[in-house]
Task: structure prediction
Amino acid sequence: MGNIGSVEDAVKLGISFEDQGRDFYLEFAEATTDPAAKDMFLYLAEEEKKHAKYLQSYLKGEDLSIDEESDMPDFKEAFASEFTGEKLGEVGVMLAAMRLERKTEDLYLMLSSVSSDAGQRDFFEKLAAVERGHYDLIDGLLGAITGFRMQT
Result:
């Protein structure tokens, strides 16, 4: 992540990650012809928009609450029925999306670890957990699409 001079700089970086993520998801939502992929990308774009707003509120010294996430939509069935070997483009996009979600999660975990305020730690831990949920959502879809299951 390079040199981050302050928590404020890291939060601004987080806003940038969220904005880039939203743009990324919107671009692929528009480009895909797969309805399930479109729905998932639009859902994730909306999530990234909310996260940027949370971080902007943080910078303004406003309330650090995060809306409790409702259950994430289950896209697996739609993907499983519509995904074929000819649509590997979406797999590449999902792999890139997983990397984005993981990097953002790592940033929020780092911010939590350096925060001396319990409310700030909780705020960043919740954001990290939401990003982990997005990662797990995409990972689950990839597992459903490819049929790959690793026993852990």
